Amino acid sequence: RLILGRVLRFEASPFVQEPETSATLINGGGVLIEGGLISEVGDGAALRRKHPDADVDDTGGSLISAGFVDAHAHYPQTAMIASWGKRLIDWLESYTFPEEMRFDASEYARDIAERWLDLITANGTTSAATYCTSHPQSVDAVFEAARARGMRLFAGKTCMDRNAPKALCDTAQRAYDESRDLLLRWHGEGRLSYVITPRFSPTSTPEQLDALGTLWAEHPECLMQTHLSEQTDEIAWVRALFPNARDYLDTYESHGLLGGRGLYGHAIHLEPRERDRLHEFGAGLVHCPTSNTFIGSGLFDMGGLKSAGHHVGLATDTGGGSSFSMLRTMAATYEIGQLSGRALHPAELWWLATAGSAEVLHVGDKIGNIIPGMEADLIALDLASTPAISQRATRAVSFWEEVFPTIMMGDDRAIRQVWIGGEKV
Ligand code: GUN
Ligand code: ZN
Fold it and tell me: Domain Amidohydrolase-related spans what residues (predicted)?
């Protein structure tokens, strides 16, 4: 298959190299796909002559980008997104836990898994890392749905053994046993990866954190995902629950849950020691900007953390986040950057939503960019998808100026076409 359009490829991270020169735009470009992988990238007409038998998807003037990668989502919260008026802890108790209890029914889990995958795909997201609920069947549901679509998906059973409704609580032993069983069944099955998932320190006993730390040590090839320092009330609660811990991160660190393959969602109110340790381990920080404003959590220090060399990915965090769209997520990242004194360049925003998220998921060599050998998860975008965007974009005198109105105002209408593993969706 040969996809024709304006092809965007990153040559380097725009946080390391000048944003303006970090990416190449090939006008009239082409991406050749063979066996689900990108095999050649270059001039569209030349590729067409060289491969006259290829099926051609000519997108006209659409922008061809790597699909978006959402590094932290809660698919079970799809149906309760945009629930009003609460902050983290009462939001969890009022909206989240009651909804997650419904995933006891496999049929409901399958229904929401399909709905969530439909929604993110329509928004140009071709890969994601999601929390499930504490029910093993919620993990089976989303992996089965993703496998049928050929998606690269990361997911894990959300473990909790305290401070949550009884119906959602497992135990330290059950968390270990059920996570291990799911890991052995799903990890490495096609494009699927199992992620060890303690929800966050307040809902796990030290025994459960230990059990999951042990499982991670036994399977260091897996990622581990959790939440860290999202709201100040939450941090005070962690201090009360773990009086001997040096800080929030230490509640993970002292139980074997700090590592380079760890994904720490939010990471807003970090102490200097926490920053240092996360950096030393090369851990992944996951910025969830629409969630941070929606639940009123605080401002992520993108400028400071990227300057210090941290690995950062971008995520919707649905349903704490208020959108399924990585475009909307980039816009919120820009807005929070402005409030924190750092105007992020459009190239930086785009990189975070593609290659940056892929890097924290340790699949930066497989997805998140358009390079021969990488998997063909691609999207075609219309940079003039609405009258408001179009009238601004036509005035642009540079490529990134043309892209920025779509970042700030675009939604699923900007996503013209999606290819997953080289197959048109
Ligand atoms: N902290 C613990 N659980 C959650 C969750 O489901 N969403 C968010 N935003 N934060 C959390
Ligand atoms: Zn979350």
Answer: 64-424
Query: Looking at the domain that runs over 2-67+369-424, which CATH code has it been given?
Result: 2.30.40.10
Every domain range in the chain assigned CATH 2.30.40.10 = 2-67+369-424
pTM for this model (two decimals) = 0.98
- What are the start-end ranges of the H helices in 267-325? 272-281, 289-294, 302-307
Atom of ligand 1 nearest to the CA of 131: 6
Residue 274 Cβ < 6 Å to ligand 1: no
Peptide bond before residue 150 is cis, with ω within 30 degrees of 0: no
Q: How far is CA 313 from CA 285, 288, 326, 380, in A?
A: 6, 9, 11, 22
pLDDT for the residue numbered 382: 98
- At 309, phi and psi to the nearest 5? 90, 15
Atom of ligand 1 nearest to the CA of 74: 6
Which ligand is in closest contact with the Cα of 160? 1
Instruction: Determine whether the shortest distance from the Cβ of 297 to ligand 1 is under 6 A.
Output: no
Q: Whose CA is nearest to atom 7 of ligand 1?
A: 320
Kindly indicate the confidence band of residue 58, based on its pLDDT and cuts at 50, 70 and 90: very high
> Is the C-beta atom of 100 inside 6 A of ligand 1?
no
Instruction: Report pLDDT digits (tens) over 131-157.
Output: 999 999 999 999 999 999 999 999 999
**Residue ranges with CB less than 5 Å from ion ligand 2:** 265, 317
Rounded Cα distance, 260 and 265, in Å:
14
pLDDT single digits (tens) 294-341: 999 999 999 999 999 999 999 999 999 999 999 999 999 999 999 999
Backbone angles phi, psi at 389, to 5 degrees: -70, -45
Protein fold of 68-360:
TIM Barrel (3.20.20)
Domain with CATH 3.20.20.140 in the chain: 68-360
